[in-house]
Amino acid sequence: MFGKKGVTAEQVRDALRVVIDPDLHRDIVTLGFVKDIAIQGADVAVTIELTTPACPVKDRLRREAEAAVQGLPGVGAVSITMTAQVRRGPGAPAEPAANPIPGVRNTIAVTSGKGGVGKSTVAANLAMALAQSGAATGLLDADVYGPSVPTMFGVPAEEKPYVNERQLIEPIEREGLKLMSIGFLVERDAAMIMRGPMLAKYVQDALARVDWGELDYLVIDLPPGTGDVQLTLSQTIPLTGAVVVTTPQQVALADVRRAVTMCEKLNVPILGIVENMSDPVGPDGQRQPMFGHGGGRAAAAEWGCYFLGEVHLDPRVPVSGDAGLPLVAAQPEAPGAARFVELAGALASRLSVLHLASEGQAATPTLRIVD
Questions:
Q1: What is the reported pTM?
Q2: Residues 6+ apart with CB under 8 A from 196
Q3: Domains in the chain and their CATH numbers?
């Protein structure tokens, strides 16, 4: 579209070629992110569509785009509108016959080689951070023996999911996040004694019989270790990938090895490794020796995996979860909450790179360390 005088849409498009996505290493015009250019007189409005609302460099791209357009001779006011359209995970069929959750674009399994590493806390905060970014997000509590979602999201025992007119279970919602847990369906204090076929049936029902609707991301909190739930899940739906949670100690390498090996055998891509409970950082910016740090980074290097980053010890994290709302929503200004938001952005960016690589629009991603 041409303005009455001066700059043209083609000139604006060419100017925007200097804006490079740091993860995809290509300009936003070539990537197809520039969706609309409107010119009225000397004023220019541009719409840029990213691959995720959780893009960690969204503000940077907006600033660079505005500066690039503003630098053209004769341009007046510049308006940059950022939107997002999340891509469907590589290899995920949209047909119900091949995929019981065709409305879900990406399925992210959060796993660990052993219990006690804060896997559920990481899953809950990552899911909440993705939801708060504007992405349609769900959280499935598949940790059958130790469901934590009811407690972490303050769902009282009397609040139960209901069956809608389509005979599907409506997930419970908190802060815009859709939730499903076996803890919603059984007595909270009941001991879960389930054999393999029963576990498989719960996982299958939690996917096919829950009305997840249209979701950009479904985060799945798996039980620790390797077992029937992991196997059933990988056989029931096409998993986009897995996030492996570990603790800082070097001894954790063995546990990461088990989780990574399991994913490889099930053909589930490793999206990244998160080091939880890393040494806390004091007000002076210095680490306070506690549990150590570096195990997650070492594991990522050994296995050639993407290292998403560290989550430092913060007493507010478990306190907020016990109080019924993950830290990301309870205290968004807290450093720990900001860290989870950063990790969610890194995860969303990682998914975008994988999707575009599968479409031939980006190079196959390699190991990247996120500090």
A1: 0.88
A2: 228
A3: 9-84 (3.30.300.130), 107-358 (3.40.50.300)
